[in-house]
Amino acid sequence: MPDLKPLHDAILTGDAKTAKATTEAAFAAGVEPMKLVQETMMPAMDEVGRRFECNEYFVPELLLAARAMKAALELIRPLLIAGGVEPAGRIVIGTVKGDLHDIGKNLVAAMLEGGGYEVIDLGVNVEPEKFVTAVKEKNARIVAMSALLTTTMPAMKTTIEALKQAGIRDQVKVMVGGAPISEKYAEEIGADGYSKSAAGAVAAAREL
Ligand code: B1M
């Protein structure tokens, strides 16, 4: 097992070049992609969040860390997708209105693609109406929403309301996730499924 601390530290300090190089080295040494994400990269981002909370880091450091994480994830994404087998359905995914966090959402999208789903990624700051239009146009079976801010969580409920208003709520299953989201919250807003992690998202989608 190679030393993964340089990757952890590269994300923490926003060093995208080293993050990429250490990820490549870890693959060459046979480390599992998802193990790398869960045991090294996410803890680094958690530490970034902790430093931000106690005013050791500010938005520029957050952005640099996100850029380093994305650089490493670019290498991991094709491997996650390559794991897929049979096509399992079409999913529309996005980060809800007001929210610009997309690292977790991108991971979930890659895992779902790896799980055999066709994924239509609407990006970040997605208006409820945009989810509705995409479901109609693409005839999607599942709407997957991500939120990272406590202030944007209510946009999930608004989107479910918009699906109801458009008369298509019973044609799709709604799945939600993101750091502040809990199973209880998912139930409260009338979502059909919840997953705490990207890895669990495939199982949750299959259940739906
Ligand atoms: Co922001 N940010 N941020 N940020 N940021 C948090 C979320 C925060 C917790 C940091 C902190 O204070 N500790 C805090 C939120 C506090 C709160 O809501 N109570 C916060 C804040 C306050 C803000 C701003 C308001 C800061 C400011 O401007 N003053 C601002 C808001 C901008 C906006 O969205 N409108 C902001 C901005 C940013 C950046 C743009 C600088 C950057 C994001 C860059 C990007 O995504 N492209 C950023 C970052 C990087 C973070 C932290 C440090 C890391 C997030 C991350 O990528 N984690 C974050 C602190 C933290 O999370 N520790 C923080 C790694 C990622 C793999 O995990 O996204 O949780 P995560 O995804 C997981 C699961 O949640 C789950 O699967 C993923 C993998 O297992 N999951 C799903 C996610 N979506 C799912 C959907 C599913 C299922 C599972 O089904 C559909």
Task: Give an overview in words.
By secondary structure, the chain is α/β, with parallel strands linked by helices. The chain has helices at 5-12, 16-28, 33-53, 59-82, 103-114, 128-138, 154-165, 183-188, 198-207; strands at residues 89-95, 117-121, 142-146, 173-177, 193-194. It has a five-stranded parallel beta sheet with strand order 2-1-3-4-5, with helices on both faces. The longest helix is centred in the middle third of the chain and has 24 residues, at 59-82. Bound molecules: CO-5-methoxybenzimidazolylcobamide (B1M). CO-5-methoxybenzimidazolylcobamide binds next to helix 3, helix 4, helix 5, strand 3 and strand 4. CO-5-methoxybenzimidazolylcobamide is lined by residues 42, 45-46, 48-49, 52-53, 59, 62-63, 65-66, 98-105, 107-108, 144-146, 148-150, 175-180, 195, 197-198, 201.
Break the fold down into its secondary structure elements and pairings.
Layout: H1 5-12, H2 16-28, H3 33-53, H4 59-82, E1 89-95, H5 103-114, E2 117-121, H6 128-138, E3 142-146, H7 154-165, E4 173-177, H8 183-188, E5 193-194, H9 198-207
Parallel strand pairs: 1-2, 1-3, 3-4, 4-5
CO-5-methoxybenzimidazolylcobamide binds next to helix 3, helix 4, helix 5, strand 3 and strand 4.
Short description:
The chain is an alpha/beta fold and 208 residues long.
